[in-house]
Amino acid sequence: MKDEENHRDIKELIFVYNVDSDFFSRVVDFAHKTVSPGTYACSLCRITHGPFTMHREWADFLQALPYKVSFQYKDQWKGPELAEGFPLVLLKEGKETKVLLTASQLDSVKSVQELIDLIVL
């Protein structure tokens, strides 16, 4: 019973990118992000990643969080249907999942630090 109670209290931040997970989509995504970053469809990716890797400030923030962090492509999202579209930042506590940041909120974020400030719980 105690393990079950602890499991329900675990918090998880879930980041769902506005990109599909198949190889072709990821290649096109990389090219688009590199060639025309201003028109790139995934604001979460644009904010947190450069052309090749995650920004150091973002990686450090994620490592310092006291709970689980996971990343999914939009075609991997198995949670409830969400009208907000993608990308999304969600908080899962036990069996309940709530939206922390919607696609429109993420679209207005201009920097890694601004995103971190919005996520700090």
Q: What is the level 1 CATH name?
A: Alpha Beta
Task: Output the number of helix runs.
Answer: 6
**Per CATH, what is the topology?**
Glutaredoxin
What number of structural domains do the residues give?
A: 1
Q: How would you spell out the order of helices and strands?
A: HEHHHEEEHH
Question: What would CATH call the architecture?
Answer: 3-Layer(aba) Sandwich
Shape: globular
Taking the alpha carbons of the first and last residues, their distance comes to 28 Å
Number of strands: 4
Structural class: alpha+beta
Gyration radius, in Å: 15 Å
- Low-pLDDT runs: 1-8
The strands making up the biggest β-sheet line up spatially as: 2-1-3-4
How much helicity do the residues have? 40-55%
Summarize the model shown.
With 121 residues, this protein is of the alpha+beta class. It is 40% helix and 21% strand. The protein has a four-stranded mixed beta sheet with strand order 2-1-3-4.
